[in-house]
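In response to the reviewer comment on reproducibility (Comment 2.3), we provide here a single inverse folding case reported in full, input and output, so that an independent group could reproduce the run without further information from us. The structure tokens appear first.
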């Protein structure tokens, strides 16, 4: 999985006044859990642009001014209800030998027979939860729709998993090919025409 480096400075004071001062200066207060103890830090709000405002999934390298570097994933994010600016971010520190659960995007591949016949694709899940060691976290989960006929569904059990597990029940539908109104109307008209032709033969 691709990684984004966030240059940050460790926070000594985590009180409300200090936190407000950080936000006023265009900084985002953050904390990373998962180590021996939580590490509080702050980084420029612009540093999170490619991490937060993207459909892609990334791990993060938190690069502190004191030389400490921590591999982590974004765990929770809070936005200001009025300005929609980032208020606070929680991270979870990665360990090479410990599996982690995170959401990654679904990537649709292939040309569905059902869509070529006039159906429409409905994506039920745009992201899926996967569990893996940090080195095995995928950038995305590939969903091949080539064999989907009109009315068919693609379940998570049909998705390839390479060194990771999908954390969803087997009956979870990733996407499906729905019968479009135009295709339904054409089928109804064809059925009427066939019925009419049979009636004339009699």
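Designed residues, in position order:
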């Amino acid at each position: 999985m691709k990684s984004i480096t966030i240059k940050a400075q460790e926070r000594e004071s985590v009180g409300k006044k200090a936190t407000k001062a950080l936000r006023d200066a265009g900084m985002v207060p953050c904390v990373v859990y998962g180590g021996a103890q939580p590490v509080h830090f702050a980084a420029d709000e612009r540093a999170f642009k490619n991490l937060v405002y993207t459909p892609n999934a990334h791990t993060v390298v938190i690069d502190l001014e004191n030389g400490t570097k921590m591999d982590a994933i974004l765990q929770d994010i809070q936005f200001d209800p009025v300005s929609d600016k980032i208020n606070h971010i929680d991270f979870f520190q990665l360990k090479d030998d410990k599996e982690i659960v995170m959401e990654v995007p679904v990537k649709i591949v292939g040309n569905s027979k059902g869509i070529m016949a006039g159906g429409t694709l409905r994506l039920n899940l745009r992201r899926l939860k996967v569990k893996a060691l940090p080195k095995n976290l995928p950038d995305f989960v590939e969903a091949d729709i080539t064999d989907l006929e009109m009315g068919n569904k693609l379940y998570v059990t049909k998705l390839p998993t390479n060194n990771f597990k999908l954390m969803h029940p087997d009956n979870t539908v990733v996407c499906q090919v729905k019968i479009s109104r135009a295709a339904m109307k054409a089928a109804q008209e064809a059925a009427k025409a066939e019925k009419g032709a049979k009636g004339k033969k009699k």
